[in-house]
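quick q for whoever's on today - can somebody do inverse folding on this one?? i tried earlier but teh output was garbage lol. tokens:
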């Protein structure tokens, strides 16, 4: 199994070689964000005890029981993420814009004769799509290293091996481009960088999304009990192109090298969600939801190229070596989720919802046939832990307008280390307009977090501090029927 050099929207992870699957892949698909409709986003995704929103069905399926009319809507999203990376006192920034589909769907509400049906008021259904993650980002890292090079890792991997046995996605590329060379002792090698102090750069452009198609059904019992269930059909597309380079103006025999990696991941998965909302009084709602793990079938396609600019026998020469096209099929399983919500209805003009979501990230895992992920899954269990996510949202209405605000706190999934406090926070606001059967909503979401990572595996490297800030503008237009 090849190891991976890659960087995702949640941080930088680089190792010696080109492509493999590790704990970061499991976390990429286990950490979700709230998207969907503008109303849902403007309340920070906190509607678990209130219901009545398409995107809320991906959190508490019982929310469909609140509907008394059919509904159709669509939500485009303008997403922007900026990253500030600091490595060895050098700071670099980058930013990326993306236009995405946050939500589209339809809800059907079928009234029942409660007297003939034992108190059941409605039976409802929904077909909807909600975006649950956005992978679009650009990240730029640069800084001088005074005690380490990626070439050290290539030499360590090469020593003790004949060149015919080198990894075709990493060590062999360095060998073919004269970055590592034999030293006259059988199966022993050195690299062309005699002194450190080289400028290291890393540039990554990633794009893609994680979305969920929802098939939802629910019912309303005497306007006091709402139940619902959802089958979720998850779709994933993730593409990344990255360039890692080292260069020096002062080292004899070496000018620079660059490693270009390309990774494309596609996947499909399934999950089941069950939810209940209880309304003990006119002003209080209580909601509970359980999400099964999502099983995702994934395919990675990848390739690598190294280009070097070195001095051989006093002549500056450029060499290039490319890997074959690689492909690997595997599965990822995300953790269970449990959500508890409480909602307050204030004189039919305002609502407040608060909820707590529990996720134990150490139960995420990767699998394949044959299974090559024993060490990866051990790393997941040791590196990650449970986390609590808190979301609070409020809405005030004076017909036909509404204003909304929200706050979300996502606990760090990391057990210890610099990232133990890698919590995410989001601040949200929005407005809405409803007139007869037509409605439109707008929302703004600002999210931020900080993570520490490394360019590649080395005990000599200092960590990179990555500060992420993302802004989303959502606009929903819809109709009731």
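ok took a stab at it. sequence:
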């Amino acid at each position: 199994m090849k190891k991976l050099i890659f960087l995702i929207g949640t941080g930088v992870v680089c190792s010696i070689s080109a492509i493999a699957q590790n704990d970061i892949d499991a976390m990429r698909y286990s950490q979700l964000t709230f998207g969907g409709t503008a109303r849902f986003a403007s309340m920070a995704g906190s509607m678990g005890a209130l219901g009545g929103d398409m995107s809320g069905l991906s959190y508490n399926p019982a929310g469909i029981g609140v509907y008394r009319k059919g509904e159709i809507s669509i939500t485009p999203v303008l997403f922007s993420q900026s990253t500030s990376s600091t490595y060895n006192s050098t700071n670099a920034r980058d930013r990326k814009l993306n236009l995405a589909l946050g939500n589209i769907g339809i809800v059907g509400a079928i009234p029942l004769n409660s007297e003939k049906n034992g108190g059941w008021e409605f039976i409802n259904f929904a077909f909807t799509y909600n975006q649950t993650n956005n992978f679009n980002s650009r990240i730029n890292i640069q800084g001088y290293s005074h005690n380490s090079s990626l070439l050290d890792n290539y030499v360590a991997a090469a020593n003790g091996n004949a060149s015919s046995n080198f990894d075709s996605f990493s060590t062999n590329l360095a060998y073919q481009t004269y970055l590592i060379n034999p030293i006259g002792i059988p199966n022993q090698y050195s690299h062309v960088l005699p002194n450190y102090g080289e400028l290291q750069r890393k540039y990554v452009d990633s794009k893609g999304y994680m979305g969920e198609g929802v098939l939802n059904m629910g019912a309303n019992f005497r306007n006091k009990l709402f139940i619902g269930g959802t089958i979720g059909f998850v779709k994933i597309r993730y593409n990344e192109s990255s360039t890692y380079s080292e260069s020096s103006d002062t080292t004899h025999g070496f000018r620079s090298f660059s490693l270009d990696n390309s990774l494309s991941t596609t996947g499909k998965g399934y999950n089941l969600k069950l939810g209940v909302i209880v309304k003990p009084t006119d002003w209080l709602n209580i909601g509970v939801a359980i999400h099964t793990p999502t099983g995702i079938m994934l395919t990675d396609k990848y390739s690598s190229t190294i280009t070097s600019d070195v001095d051989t026998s006093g002549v500056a020469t450029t060499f290039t070596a490319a890997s074959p096209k690689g492909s690997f099929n595997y599965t990822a399983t995300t953790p269970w989720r449990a959500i508890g919500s409480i909602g307050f209805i204030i004189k039919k003009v305002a609502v407040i919802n608060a909820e707590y979501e529990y996720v134990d990230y150490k139960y995420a895992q990767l699998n394949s046939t044959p299974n090559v992920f024993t060490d990866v899954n051990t790393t997941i269990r040791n590196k990650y832990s449970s986390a609590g996510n808190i979301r609070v949202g409020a809405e005030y209405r004076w017909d036909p307008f509404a204003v909304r605000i929200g706050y979300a706190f996502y606990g760090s999934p990391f057990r210890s280390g610099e990232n133990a406090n890698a919590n995410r926070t989001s601040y949200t606001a929005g407005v809405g307009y409803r007139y007869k059967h037509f409605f439109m909503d707008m929302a703004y979401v600002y999210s931020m977090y900080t993570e520490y990572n490394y360019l590649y595996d080395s005990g000599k490297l200092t960590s990179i501090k990555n500060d992420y800030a993302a802004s989303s503008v959502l606009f929903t237009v819809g109709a009731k029927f």
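fwiw Residues 374-383 form the longest helix (10 residues). also Residues 1-18 have pLDDT under 50 and may be disordered. so keep that in mind when u check it
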